[in-house]
Write a structure and sequence with these properties.
CATH class: Alpha Beta
Bound molecules: flavin-adenine dinucleotide
Structural class: alpha/beta
Number of strands: 8
Mean pLDDT: 94
Low-confidence stretches: none
Strand content: 5-15%
Number of domains: 1
Helix content: 40-55%
Order of helices and strands: EHEHEHEHEHEHEHHHEH
Shape: globular
Number of helices: 10
Strand order of the largest sheet: 1-2-3-4-5-6-7-8
Largest sheet: 8 strands, parallel, barrel
CATH architecture: Alpha-Beta Barrel
């Protein structure tokens, strides 16, 4: 079966660190317009470290004619800081936001965590301050958030975010489609009926993938790990294998009527485009 015309794609970027990286981002985002994303999103650095960069990148993507959503994490920010950022976004016509707890930058103590401790608190604040203005996305973890006490606890906290007013969710990446289907079934059994969109991580670099996965609790299946490890520094083989694995995953998800696919592009147009071509070709 080939991709259905109705598949809604979204693309995630991170704020570039300098002008050269910004130019690469613009060029890559332009190339990726062929995917016709429903929206793009831009990550927010721990403790607000990319606050300006996030909004600048949102502006850049909007200039390319795309709806763009800033990520906003509450940890490390005061209630007033969050409120003023929400007002700024609203004034500027931003109407979609990805609401997260975030992670404390290493070396900062619990005292610096700020007033809001969970993403559900941030969703509540956004709804309290701005009513229905924003379409709110939240994060979901098919393989459980690494700090959760257990899958049921984590699911309960996810449901709380939805009840606080989230409109849709994007998952942490995964390579085992069953973990996603199981999570969606369990969420729906608890009355969740918002779209839960799979987050898709292209595979281009073994070391980086293992490091990210270690941090965020995503499992890289043994067979994928072993194949990648054996390829060593052979970037072409890693890219070809990674594209095949992730395209197959996306096709399985599409065949099972997922509400969309959210690509963690890592600002790398070619990796995402290769998967998309595999789905459309
Ligand atoms: P929460 O939903 O608050 O959950 C965090 C943990 O707390 C979970 O273990 C949960 O079970 C637990 N919990 C929740 N509520 C309660 C409660 N009431 N009592 C006890 N425990 C509770 N990070 C960034 O820094 N910037 C980004 O731009 C960014 N974008 C992301 C986008 C997506 C799609 C995803 C999936 C993750 C992203 N992250 C980002 C990472 C995210 O910030 C981390 O995973 C973070 O550790 C948790 O954020 P959260 O919003 O899921 O938190």
């Amino acid at each position: 079966m080939t991709m259905q015309a109705s598949t809604a794609f979204s693309l995630e970027f991170f704020p570039p660190r300098d002008d050269a990286a910004k130019q690469r981002l613009v060029a890559g985002a332009q190339q990726m317009l062929v995917i016709d994303p429903v929206y793009c999103s831009v990550t927010f650095g721990a403790g607000g470290s990319t606050r300006d960069g996030t909004f600048d990148t949102v502006r850049v993507l909007r200039e390319l004619g795309r709806d763009a959503a800033p990520h906003l994490s509450c940890i490390g920010s005061s209630r007033d800081e969050l409120k003023s950022l929400l007002q700024l976004y609203r004034q500027e016509g931003v109407s979609r936001i990805v609401a997260l707890r975030g992670d404390m930058p290493s070396g900062m103590g619990a005292d610096a965590a700020g007033a809001l401790r969970h993403a559900s608190d941030l969703v509540e604040l956004i709804r309290h301050e701005t009513g229905d203005w924003f379409h709110i996305e939240v994060a979901a973890y098919p393989e459980m958030h690494p700090q959760a006490a257990g899958p049921e606890h984590d699911l309960t906290h996810f449901v709380n975010k939805v009840r606080a007013g989230a409109d849709s969710a994007i998952t942490q990446y995964f390579f085992n489609a069953d973990s996603y289907f199981d999570f969606v079934d369990r969420a729906q059994a608890k009355g969740v009926n918002i779209p839960i969109v799979p987050g898709i991580m292209p595979i281009t670099n073994y070391t980086q993938l293992m490091r990210f996965s270690e941090m965020c609790g995503a499992e890289v299946p043994r067979w994928i790990r072993l194949r990648l490890a054996e390829m060593g520094d052979d970037k072409d083989s890693i890219r070809a294998f990674g594209t095949e694995v992730v395209t197959d995953l996306c096709q399985t998800l599409i065949d099972n009527d997922v509400p969309g696919l959210h690509f963690y592009t890592l600002n790398n147009a070619e990796a995402t485009l290769a998967i998309w071509r595999g789905l459309t070709g």
